[in-house]
Amino acid sequence: MTRARGRPGTPDLDDLLRALAPRVLTALLRRCGSFDTCEDAVQDALMAAATQWPDEGVPANPAGWLVTVASRRWTDAWRQDVARRRREESVAALEPEEPVVVGSADDTLTLFLLCCHPAVPPDAQVPLTLRAVGGLSTVEIAGALLVPPATVGQRISRAKQRIRASGARFELPFPGERAQRVAAVRDVLYLMFTEGHTASSGAALHRVDLSSEAIRLTRQLHGALPEDGETAGLLALMLLTDARRPARTRPDGSLVPLAEQDRGRWDRAAITEGTALVSAALAATPIGAFQLQAAIAAVHDEAASVEDTDWRQVLGLYELLGTVDPGPMVALNRVVAVAEVHGPAAGLVELGTLLAGSAAALAEHHRTIAVHAHLLELAGDADAARGAYERAARRTLNLPERRYLERRADRLRGDVGDPPRR
User: In a 10 Å sphere around its CB, with 0-12 CB exposed, 13-18 middle and 19+ buried, how is residue 168 labelled?
Assistant: First the structure.
């Protein structure tokens, strides 16, 4: 036995258990097959490890220890559902003395696909993935998602019931179905990251635990699918975006926009890794939306200053992204690039065209109103810009975003310095 390096809840032990959780679950699923009972058994085993290992020491084979304990927990649950005397010999056969953990890339991918099965409600896919693949507890997931633990527990329970009712098994889908299912996994991970990068509500701009977990899980998916260009692009996008996080808020938690950030505080190692990932993917695989978004992020991250940003390249990438994966937010971001290349008047015309057409539903979204305010400010219409900033501030539920937008409005009243950049 080796001694554990921390009490329950400390980074060393938490990291170890999170890394082992999906391996233990996949081993148990291969043996027992029932996702809901296997996942419950693994959670019991993780709890036992968190309680016992700090005092007794980490076993020489921690994964084997967890599989053994989880197998016993599963057996106990199984015995409660069947006639104990008639099944005793069969149950005993499910308890090998030396359990073997199978931790292949296919296992990781299969577990991702099971958590994001079409039968699982969308609001349950994120917490189920965080628990089954990420190894987080219900309380940890609740903290990351800013919802009560009881709500998380209900969503996970509902997800497992849906998986059981659908008859889904722990196996890779047919090749014809696999690409669509993997795309669903990527969407779940991206949703997880974006919510961590800019929380949709609350007092904090970031939920670092959630965005960091999204990056860790995307690394696992990339490890299972190293030749998949869109998975590489997603990981690159996360790294390139998260690299700016140290400079994105002031000590008081207020938001610092990209143009005003201290680029010396950006994470250069993450930028280097992300740029290399997206460059390799674009060169060797079919172009996809996540790759193009990562390429745009790389252009911003590689510029020594905001003035050095190659906005023509950014605009060209948004033009291509609008072809590959059209959507209102892509079109809105393209408007900003148009304004940077051709001037704010051209940006305002593009925004008007956009809101009169496919993106009409976004007219009252706080991001759309904030872009409008920004373009009005650059065009010199201070009064209209101030009103738009105030309207955008009222529509966001994130407190740092609201305060930033209110500050922009105050500047146009002359209350704060710093003229608009142009």
Answer: middle
Note if the pTM is more than 0.90: no
Cα(160)–Cα(155) distance, integer angstroms: 9
User: Positive or negative, the Cα torsion across 198, 199, 201, 203?
Assistant: negative
Q: Do residues 241 and 247 touch, judged by C-beta distance below 8 A?
A: no
For tokens 């996008």, name the residue.
237
Tell me how far apart the alpha carbons of residues 419 and 278 are, in angstroms, rounded to a whole number: 36
Nearest to 231 by CA among 245, 220, 240: 220
Dist CA 364 CA 124 (whole Å): 28
Question: Quick check: 270 and 240 in contact, CB under 8 A?
Answer: yes
* pLDDT tens-digit readout, 296-327: 999 999 999 999 999 999 999 999 999 999 98
Structure tokens of 405? 């937008």
Does residue 418 come out as left (phi exceeding 0), alpha (psi in the -120 to 50 range) or beta? left
CA atoms within 13 A on the CB side of 218: 31
| DSSP at 128 | H
